[in-house]
Amino acid sequence: MSILGTRVVRTEDPRLLTAGGTYVDDLRVPELTQAARVTFVRSPIAHALITGIDAAAAREAPGVLAVLTANDLDDLPPPPPDDGGGGGDGGDGGEAAPLPLGGPWTEPLLAVDRVRFVGEPVAMVITTEHYQGEDAAELVSVDYEPLPPVIGADAALAGESLLFPAAGTNVAVTFGAPADATTFDGCEVVVERTIENQRLAPVPMEGRAAAAVWAAGKLTVWVSTQNAQISRFVLAGALGLDPDSIRVVAPDVGGGFGAKIGLDRDALLVAWAAKHTGRALRWAETRSENLLGMTHGRAQRQVIKIGGTLDGRILAYRLEIVQDTGAYPRMGGFLPFLTSLMATGPYDIGTAETAYRVIVTNTTPISAYRGAGRPEATAAVERAVDLFAVEIGMDPADVRRINLVPPDKFPFNSPCGAVYDTGAYSAALDKVLAGAGYQELRAEQARRRERGDVRQLGIGVASYVEITAADAAGGETARLVVHDDGTATVYTGSSAHGQGHHTAWAMLVQAELGIDMDKVTVVHGDTDLIPLGVGTYASRSLQLGGVAVQKAAVDVREQARRVAADMLEASESDLELDVDRGLWHVRGDPEASRTWAQVAGHAGEDGLAASVNYTEGQPTFPFGTHLAVAEVDTETGKATMLRHVTVDDAGTVLSPLLAEGQRHGGIAQGVAQALLEEMRYDAAGNPVTGTLVDYAIITAAELPSFELLASETPATINPLGAKGIGEAGTIGATPATQNAVIDAVSHLGVRHIDMPVTPERVWTAISDAREGR
Amino acid sequence: MIPAPFTYTRAASVDEALELAVQGGEDAKFLAGGHSLLPLMKLRLAVPETLIDIGRIGELSYIAEQDGHIVIGALTSHDAVARSGLLGSELPLLAHAAGQVGDPQVRHRGTIGGSLAHADPAADLPAVILALGATLVTRGASGSREIPAGDFFLDLFETALRPGELLTEIRIPKPHVTGWSYQKFTKRGIDWAIVGVAVQGGSVTLVNMGSTPLRAGAVERAVAAGSELRDAAAHAAEGTSPPDDLNGGRAYREHLARVLVARGLEEARSRS
Ligand SMILES: Cc1cc2nc3c(=O)[nH]c(=O)nc-3n(C[C@H](O)[C@H](O)[C@H](O)COP(=O)(O)OP(=O)(O)OC[C@H]3O[C@@H](n4cnc5c(N)ncnc54)[C@H](O)[C@@H]3O)c2cc1C
Question: How far is it, in rounded angstroms, from Cα A175 to Cα A168?
Answer without folding.
Answer: 18
